[in-house]
Amino acid sequence: MAGNQDARAAALVVGPDGVVSGWSESGQRLLGWTAEDAVGRPVTDLLAAPPPPGFPDSDGSGPDHPRLIPLLRRDGSTLDALVSAHPLFDADGRALGHAVTVQRWESRPVIADLAFEQCPFALGVYDPELRFLWINASSGRVIAHSEEQVLGKKYREVFPEFDRSLFPERDDKPYTDQVSEVARTGKPARLITVFRPLGSNYANAWATSIWPVRDAEGRVRAVANWGFDMSAEYWARQRLLMLNEASGGIGRTLDVIGTAQELATTPVPAFTDLVTVDLFDEVLRGEEPPSVSEFTSGTTIVLSRAAQHSAKEDTDQAPGPTTPVSHAPGSVAARCMATGRSTVQLAADPGEGGEWAFGPGLASDPAHWPPGNPLIDGSIAADGLTGRITVPLRARGALLGVVAFSRLDRPEAFTADDLILAEELTAKAAVAIDNARRYSRERTTALTLQRSLLLQQLPSQEALEVASRYLPAATDAEVGGDWFDVIPLSGARVALVVGDVVGHGLHASASMGRLRTAVRTLADVDLPPDELLTHLDDLVIHLASDLQPAGHFQPTGEFGATCLYTVYDPVSRRFTLASAGHPLPLIISPDGTRTSAPAQPGPPLGIGGLPFEATEIELPEGSLLALYTDGLVESRERDVDQGIAELLRVLNHSATSLDDLCDTVLDAMLPVRRTDDAALLLARTHAMDPQHVAYWDVEPDPAQVPRARKFALDQLEAWGMEEESFVTELVVSELVTNAIRYGEPPIRLRLIRDTSLICEVSDASNTSPHLRRARAFDEGGRGLLLVAQLTQGWGTRHTTDGKTIWCAQTLTEPEPEPQ
Fold this sequence. Notes:
- The protein is of the alpha+beta class.
- It is built from 20 helices and 32 strands.
- The protein is elongated and about 165 Å long.
- The model is unreliable at 58-63, 352-358, 551-557 and 773-781 (pLDDT under 50).
């Protein structure tokens, strides 16, 4: 029928009983049926296939949206047409049937049909209720259904899995909801859909566009979509994202085991299901790893499992004690470490019929595998693995260990791109682990140096009860230059010292040792605190000039320090202090009064030209003193003033044990992640028993020397120390004679019974005596030599109104009485 080519659409009327009651001329031109042929026949006689459910509804409520239905022509051929049924009603609202419109589906040029059918992109058209109206061959291959299998069916019926979110972690809408939203709103949408096609072991990523199909009046009559497989680009982007995550997630701390744990957790579960990291013990200790040449073909390589992370079980190995792991000769791990090349093991050939079924992208070509990969090894299936990538952990030419990436029951086989990703992750981690190893070695060296320079054991003395703590910074921070010291002085006095050197590392530790030695040397001269800091300031200035680079040496950085030097005298209960930019000590009186020492800190050491001021305080017996460095009170969470207030609150004067109090203070004051060293020195003051101190004012007359000797002998007898009488008589005679002969009045003799017997002679002269070698016929010059020979120590200390010459004798232990 030639006239049929001119018809594009037709109309007819169907009664409530489904019988054709009206026919149009266009219907005759389109289908060949005349009005006489069609009227009075059931409308189903005009269909080439069974009608879709509910078309048309007998109650007059049938849908008015178009459906793709094959119609029967009079000549026996079929015609695909878009059919719409519109209900008709009379004035009383009774159903009169349907007005049915028919539009030729073949109205498009044939070449367009062929173009869409053969398009490599997946194309589909759905009615507003997501019933399939048409799909091309590519779409059929993707969904593994033919057009006949899905035509007229709802998308949700064919693919119920798409009613769930493809990315629940991103709170995305289900795919079918997104298509429905386009039909409802008429707004096009673009999205990426990731799913595993039927019969495939690999998830594919599809770029999909969805748009509404409108009629001439602008109403949405259908929804169309197209998509193409962008899996290669998608998974390449995912690998880049994982590498970017690894760049920020691996190597955040300078800790070997912590970095290994970061490597183990980063690729799970997006890339693999189980990661193990095995390292040489030398790497864990910060030492140089063994050379590969040390391993012979028959050697079992013993490593330590530094980290392990699994997506299925709670097998994470947290930083702490490691587990030994042995790799037998000839094993994959041993070969990888010996050759320096990675190995991919697959539990089974992923292809069927000899054809490899790799994932999408360049990795689908086996030619992209490096030599020797992949290795089909069914033995790993016994461990529940479908694949494993073993990569030697190497950095700067050194072998640190081995890493294994394993997949558990996952159908996807590793690809050549997966091997590249595993090697990139391992390479990033290897550099971070080696940096941590090198830092650990330097930190251990600095700590060893620092601890060797710090006070190892508190000296024996009676003036103070002392306890101390020193804690270096956290493992990811360099060692600082905090230090403290307790120095016994003449006259039963004790010096308490706390200091902090600018900077961190070996340089700070070495500088701290030099300053501590200098302070001990100056303290031995018995300088007052302000004078001692002045000399120390000059020393720091000279040390700073010595650090200037010369020749090929590199500068070691700035040099500066703070220092607090204090002296406590148990006889007078006087506490003298001077500060060079260091926090002042805290004082807690026996009555509970808490305060900072009322003194003015001077400038830090190394500035020069500015004076230091000494402050003297009288302390009640049993006062608690707290000396500390700023690392104890200052942190990111609080400033120095807040830290000092908190320290004052924590200090408990009634604590019976200063050691326990030190622990309590550190627990309360220090955060878990310390960025600076912290030193704490606690001292509880004692007062000398007045009965253990004896004074006698000496007139500047040589006739007073015998009286001084008698005073000393009488006092020793009163103390029950007659065994020290001989030496004491000689010492008193020489020191008093020198003071009368070379000193200036007033002159005073003082005896102190402490852990040793101390004899002191003071006068108003600033002239210091010194040892000299007397000639054979000299009448004098042997006094101080005798004092030095007969006592265990002697010296001179200067005061504001003169000097004091002292000497100390070790007390003889009383012999036990016979039983």
